[in-house]
Write a structure and sequence with these properties.
The protein has 219 residues and is an alpha+beta fold. It is built from six helices and six strands. The strands form two sheets. Strands 1-2-4-3 form a four-stranded antiparallel β-sheet. It has a two-stranded antiparallel sheet with strand order 5-6.
């Protein structure tokens, strides 16, 4: 799939089958994680076949069922936006490999997560991974003008970027972000609320893919 098709097709999944992650997919995913960690100065880790964090041995835990794999989103303190940006890059790579996912901030047992946390680092959240019982459902989205200053006649790339950003997962589907264009540059701002700085990183990655531009577009 093209990246835009991946963004449109990928939805949050919370119920997983018992099928282990395929060995080749794990290898590719680990390479992507290593690249993202180097670029972003992060310590994201892939944990597989670990049933405790999501209590996978029980019929269900919160809204989750059967989750034994996850990304531990670890990094230095103050890296909220980078965690979102590079985390979503890994999430879309996972989906390209046929692996479903869900960003998770609260509904897991943090003390049970099998994670290495270095000095000055923190575990921001996790991303549940696995082969879903289904493909999830699309979340409701705001309008383009709710989250940007887009007006008729603005460049096509700007509209495409905002539309892609609206496909991004955000905490509690709050979509508390705002884009403002100044020529060929864009300012992205996080609103008030839980995890909005991490959400901003996620939506900025989506925006770049939709607009077919790189990080140089940001003010």
């Amino acid at each position: 799939m093209e990246k835009l098709e991946l963004m449109k097709a990928r939805h949050s999944v919370r119920r997983f089958t018992d099928k282990p992650l395929e060995e080749n997919a794990v290898s590719i995913l680990c390479d992507e994680i290593d690249t993202c960690n180097k670029e972003g100065g992060l310590h994201i880790q892939l944990i597989t076949e670990e049933p405790e964090a999501f209590q996978a041995g029980k019929p269900s835990y919160g809204q989750f069922k059967g989750c034994k794999n996850y990304l531990a989103m670890v990094g230095p303190k103050g890296k909220d936006e980078s965690i979102g940006y590079y985390g979503e890059r890994i999430v879309l790579k996972a989906f390209e490999l046929g692996i479903n996912s869900c960003w998770v901030a609260l509904t897991y047992k943090k003390g049970k997560a099998d994670v290495k946390i270095g000095a000055g680092e923190k575990l921001y959240m996790v991303v549940a991974l696995g082969y879903g019982e289904d493909q999830g459902v699309a979340h409701k989205v705001k309008s383009i003008t709710d989250v940007s200053d887009y007006r008729s006649g603005d460049p096509d790339w700007y509209k495409a970027g905002v539309e892609a950003a609206l496909l991004a997962p955000t905490a509690m589907n709050q979509q508390k972000f705002k884009f403002e264009r100044s020529g060929d540059k864009v300012k992205a701002k996080a609103g008030l609320g839980f995890y909005t700085k991490t959400d901003l990183g996620i939506v900025k990655y989506h925006f770049e893919l939709g607009a077919d531009k790189g990080k140089e577009l940001w003010i």
